[in-house]
Amino acid sequence: MQDLILIIQYFILGLVQGVTEPIPISSSGHLVIFRELFGIKAKGLSFEIFVNFASLLAVLLIYKEDIIRLIKNTLLFLFKKDEAARSDFQFVIYLIIATIPVGVVGVLFGDYLGDLLSRTEVIGITLLITAAAIWMIRNLRGRKQDGDLTMKDAVIVGLAQAVAVTPGISRSGASIVAAMMVGMKQDTALRFAFLLYIPVSLGTTILEVPDLVTSPDFQALWIPNTIAFITAFVATYFALKWFMGIMARGNLKYFSYYCVVVGLLVIIFL
């Protein structure tokens, strides 16, 4: 019976990760909240990065055509100087530039940020910060498309994503907020944010593999962890498809309301 309860708990954790990863309400913050509710204690970022990898696979599946096109056109521009491929080549360069800040922050402060995951009061405060940021851009309608981006845009979005390594600050939210503040259209902001998510998530997963493999707790719970992984993959896929529609309609203010309510509840009760 106890094993069944544990499996149900990890199923819920996977569902929470999958649903909250693509939308601007902080998947890491919600995982902390639900682990606190379930009494599941864990140090560091191993479990979060494991289920985050499941979300990464779902994002890769949804954006596979964009990824293939960007890789193909980048190679065409580099080796054949095809001017028609220049825009996609520049887009890739801007993605690389935007990745640098979060990489630096992760290397320098990764252990400290892992310790923050045990502090629910931090999550409550950062959810309120996320709410304020989303509220600021709720009515913005930018004009910049893929070919209109600049180096400055990439740096600003990259810095915003670096801030989002703090638990409770939504990664997708921070990236989308920054992208829309520099004038990107909703679909461009969404695509840039999630294509930017790919190298960052892949890098953190690779760095965490040794800890995952050697962790006795992780190996002992391989069945619950596998269930959480599969659930996170499926939930991320459908949640991102749903969020694409939300972005197109411009209903981001409701995520701001949600983060305010959850942030206050966490501060008061957890």
UniProtKB/TrEMBL annotation:
Cell compartments where the protein resides: Cell membrane
Recorded topology in the membrane: Multi-pass membrane protein
EC number, as in UniProt: 3.6.1.27
Reaction(s) catalysed (UniProt annotation): di-trans,octa-cis-undecaprenyl diphosphate + H2O = di-trans,octa-cis-undecaprenyl phosphate + phosphate + H(+)
Entry superkingdom: Bacteria
Pfam families, A to Z: BacA (PF02673)
Membrane-traversing stretches: 44-63, 91-110, 116-137, 189-207, 219-240, 252-269
EC category name: hydrolase
Keyword flag Hydrolase: yes
InterPro entries: UppP
Function: Catalyzes the dephosphorylation of undecaprenyl diphosphate (UPP). Confers resistance to bacitracin.
Note: Bacitracin is thought to be involved in the inhibition of peptidoglycan synthesis by sequestering undecaprenyl diphosphate, thereby reducing the pool of lipid carrier available.
Protein name according to UniProt: Undecaprenyl-diphosphatase
Species name: Oceanobacillus luteolus
